[in-house]
Amino acid sequence: MRRNSREIVPGSRSTCRAISRTPIPWAAAVRELAEETGLIADPADAYVVTMLVDDSHGIPRLTAVVRITAWTGTPANPEPDKFHGWEFLDLHTLACVGGIFAPAAQALDAVWPGVIPDLPPVVSYPLAIERPPVPGEPAEAGRLRRAMARTVIEGGWAPSSAVRSALETVPRHRYVPEAGLAVAYDGGDRAVITRRDGSGTAISSVSAAWLQADMIEQLRLDPGAIVFEAGSGGYNAELIAYVTAAGRVVSADIDPWVVRRTRAFLTEAGSGRVTVVEADAALGAPAHLVPRGGFDATMITYNCWDIAPAWVEQLSNGGRLVLPLEIGGYTRSVTFERRGEVLHAAHFTYCGFVRDQGQQARTAPVVPLLDGALSLRFDEGAPAGAHGLKEALRGPRHEIATGITMGAGAYFGSLQLYAATTLPGFCRLHAHQDPGVTVIPKGRDAPAVLGDASLAYLTHVQTRHGEDPQDREWEWVVHAFGDQGPQLAEQLSATVHAWDRHIRADDNNEHADPVLTAHPAGTPDHQLPAGDVLDKASFRLVFQWPGRDGRLPAPARPTGTATTTTGAA
């Protein structure tokens, strides 16, 4: 509600005065509510959330935050000499209404963390009283939620009845109060950012509903399952809890703000079967929360460069681990099944998540070129061979037209993954500006291979135009610089041809995935299956692609020299 045009939350000041006259803040809140709005509530339906202490011009202030869960009557203005009127506001608009009385703003934040950003710190004393769930929602929320669920289901992302019912039932909007209903339920295809760091980079979000549904489906949960979730927010954990029926979820997050927010929302809108802990999720769940025999399943909800050993150690044999794994800088949600000490991939989904922040956080090596107009990013090892590239990029450019074409809407994510895991010297060439050298559009990047002061990279060029998208066509073209450029270009072109023969399919959903296994670091080469090896810090990933002869090549990381792709390209 809005009081006049300046203060929000009715009775913030007068409630504090009433508290000074009585030791029962919930009774005072109920009385003030009736006096100022005409709404009638029972003290049994009023719960003290927390006590806030701040200071204004040297005068300490005490604010009791009371949540009233039920009332009767119609909002009125019984005190027209004190109030101009009341106005209901949607939560997501509170950040835009102008100045808010400080205790009122802090009170709102205590109930719905994040609806008003950038608040100054305040001393808070949470009450050791169990807060109740707060039911109810606008009819529009139910309609939009059903529409969102229908979109996800029609897209094929929720084949099981349990996941479908979860999407139709769990109130997504209750976990993103700073977003309007239309945004919260936007077609199942929008992630809602809930927290950013000082640079504006998203560090916490509620993912797109289709992706959440897909990842939960891949867990293959049975009723009563106990699941570990790394990265909190509340909504995803509640979806999992719903699917497990009588099961439970342990959710860990390293950010205290996210943990406080998640606990608050789960208390009001959750099932009571999610336990939230503040911890570095890469270290796993606290020992006392790990079930005997391990978790039935584990889901990671942020980008991971590596697989944390704790996730495997705390996973039951035969259990499933679903995580967004970075491979050569490209992210795929990979579903692994644990078989002893080895993980076997069962499913891949193209995706993107916020980055990890804990023990596993990693900054990818980057080499700037041409005064920062370009850069090379290496995700699987320290850069090598970049010396002399500046001079090479100012020299002639070698080109090869591959003859491999694609139409509008064609999926080429499998080409990115294939190149990243089979090409020694693989990296990504980013164009931050348009230096007039690479033909890569500003803000885009291209798969590349690095040699000795030489570089080759892959772009697609439109070769056929038309008003109708089905009439348009693009061709893959390789560009190269440096003395080894022609050799690197041939290598990259051969990779595109091998992808076209063995991996690509006319149906975007039918591209071939590799057989992927993850083995503990230190596993000797002779104990690995034949394939392309990508070494992480804790695990060795082995990719077996169709059409390759299975010989074990050099690791797919920069070597400083140009080599020929192994296998039957």
Gross geometry? elongated
**Number of distinct helices:** 13
How many beta-strand elements?
24
Q: Helices and strands: which structural class?
A: alpha+beta
The proportion of residues forming helix, as a percent range, comes to 10-25%
Largest sheet: 10 strands, mixed
Widest sheet: strand ordering: 10-9-8-11-12-13-14-22-24-23
Low-confidence stretches: 1-22, 551-569
What's the alpha carbon Rg, rounded to whole Å? Answer: 28 Å
Mean residue pLDDT: 87
Estimated share of beta-strand residues:
25-35%
End-to-end Cα distance: 67 Å
Protein topology:
Layout: E1 2-3, E2 7-8, H1 12-21, H2 25-37, E3 46-56, E4 59-68, H3 102-111, E5 123-126, H4 139-154, H5 161-169, H6 181-184, E6 192-196, E7 202-206, H7 209-219, E8 226-230, H8 235-243, E9 248-253, H9 256-269, E10 274-278, E11 295-300, H10 309-313, E12 315-327, E13 330-339, E14 342-350, E15 366-369, E16 374-377, H11 389-393, E17 398-407, H12 413-422, E18 426-431, E19 445-450, E20 455-464, E21 473-481, H13 485-502, E22 515-520, E23 532-535, E24 539-544
Parallel strand pairs: 8-9, 8-11, 9-10, 11-12
Antiparallel strand pairs: 1-2, 3-4, 3-5, 6-7, 12-13, 13-14, 14-22, 15-16, 16-18, 17-21, 18-19, 19-20, 20-21, 22-24, 23-24
Helix pairs in contact: 1-2, 4-5, 5-8, 12-13
